[in-house]
Amino acid sequence: xxxxxxxxxxxxxxxxxxxxxxxxxxxxxxxxxxxxxxxxxxxxxxxxxxxxxxxxxxxxxxxxxxxxxxxxxxxxxxxxxxxxxxxxxxxxxxxxxxxxxxxxxxxxxxxxxxxxxxxxxxxxxxxxxxxxxxxxxxxxxxxxxxxxxxxxxxxxxxxxxxxxxxxxxxxxxxxxxxxxxxxxxxxxxxxxxxxxxxxxxxxxxxxxxxxxxxxxxxxxxxxxxxxxxxxxxxxxxxxxxxxxxxxxxxxxxxxxxxxxxxxxxxxxxxxxxxxxxxxxxxxxxxxxxxxxxxxxxxxxxxxxxxxxxxxxxxxxxxxxxxxxxxxxxxxxxxxxxxxxxxxxxxxxxxxxxxxxxxxxxxxxxxxxxxxxxxxxxxxxxxxxxxxxxxxxxxxxxxxxxxxxxxxxxxxxxxxxxxxxxxxxxxxxxxxxxxxxxxxxxxxxxxxxxxxxxxxxxxxxxxxxx
Length: 465
Hints:
Blueprint lengths: L2 E8 L3 E4 L10 E4 L6 H12 L10 E6 L9 H8 L7 E6 L4 H14 L5 E8 L16 E8 L5 E10 L5 E2 L8 E2 L2 H24 L8 E4 L4 H11 L21 H12 L5 E7 L2 E9 L9 H6 L7 H7 L19 H6 L1 H4 L3 E5 L5 E2 L15 E5 L5 E9 L9 E8 L4 E6 L12 E12 L2 E10 L3
Parallel strand pairs: 4-5, 4-6, 11-12
Antiparallel strand pairs: 1-7, 1-8, 2-3, 6-7, 8-13, 9-10, 12-13, 14-15, 14-16, 17-18, 17-20, 18-19, 20-21
Helix pairs in contact: 1-2, 4-5
């Protein structure tokens, strides 16, 4: 039996009012902060997925996105390092299609079924770029979902998968394009989306002796609310069978969309429920999933939807995306070019956030030391991971002089449960709500990009859930 053992999601804290954007949509959509991208959101979803899982049992990481920070560099390797997984695992990136997430999940299921791996972490994340004023700007949202596909503690069995290929130019983005493009909607929908997905779903049902009425819930992709309703009618679904696509609170999250809606369905599912998962992007993937038990939904998608700030003003959003280049007040700092050898050499300290714990006296220290600051013993330490430990604010300093897309720049000093103290930059904060002793959590973010190198490191933020 192969299926889903655990899931996790991530929705950025900030929201934009859709009424102020193109497309005339109602509600709001989730937008990533200036220091977030598909990789950092994927890591956040992965952290939530792995909360109750032994990391040493993970045999692979598959990452899906249409918005990779790199055109040439595997991101699943970086994600595996940030999540502090083993080095002897299989990694793969899935890209260039809105169904990359479901394709990655199907590939993971096939890999586990073949016996090549026992548990694979599948992550999908996207933050698709939309031209200001376009219909896409009003509907695109940012987010990520993660699933562990395995055969040991399966809570939702993946009974069958079906896929078809559909070579059509409906939505695309070339290397030289900054924003997503699309052809005339009637052609794109009637010759692409509304044909490919029903054929895949029909073939899946026929092969398994099912009708559409046999599914408790259907989680499927739609480019916007109207076409999502059109697909529900085309498939013959009753309104009670359609899992809420959350267009008015989340938006179209691209390669992560279908999997995030599946996570919402699993959050509410009961043993015996049958779920239909379907996605579209130059063809369609369809999956038949049967729920065997209830999942831990403490960090489910609805918790993240309800944990929010905003609406963020439109000018700040444009600055976060690098669309609007406004002068930043404050004293400038020299831009240091990242060193590839240094990033490689300091992976454990920076990406894995490993400090040390003294074997003699138990003192926890960061950055890693050779001599214990408490008992003075030399080279007698165990590795100690910090980013998953509880922390509280010891002291902080807001600096309005340092240029920042989200001023002020706040330096925070943290005390960790179990020992250890680190100073980090604070993100996703309201400076008026910062208080000494408040609980904090760590989050991987992008510090800066210079000469095409993205420098990732951990920041701190107020606990959301």
